[in-house]
Amino acid sequence: MLKFYIKTTEALKQLRTDKDGVVSFEYVIVAACVVTVVIAVFNGAGAGTIRGALNTGLTAITDAIGTL
Fold it and tell me: What parts of the sequence cross the membrane (predicted)?
């Protein structure tokens, strides 16, 4: 019985000191937040959004190239 207690105690100590899993989980959370923000920013409609600005800029470039 003492042998199993010692093994369990050592395993719990090792689990507490192992931080690799926690760091990976934090990166997943940060990546999900970044993706959510990017989607929210680019899904707007109108000239005041990033999508509208990109469309306006690309249209201006296309028109300028077409007049050459």
Answer: 21-42
- The identity of residue 61, as a single letter, is I
- Supply the pTM of this predicted model: 0.45
Residue with tokens 């931080």: 19
Q: Name the token pair of 12.
A: 């719990």
For residues 27 and 38, give the distance between their C-alpha atoms in angstroms, rounded to a whole number.
Answer: 16
Q: Domain limits of the chain? A: 20-67
25 neighbors 31 (Cβ within 8 angstroms): no
> CA 49 to CA 11: how far, in whole Å?
53
pLDDT in tens, 8-58: 888 777 767 766 666 777 888 899 999 998 887 777 666 677 888 888 899
Q: Cβ neighbours of residue 45 under 8 Å, at least 6 residues apart?
A: 51, 52
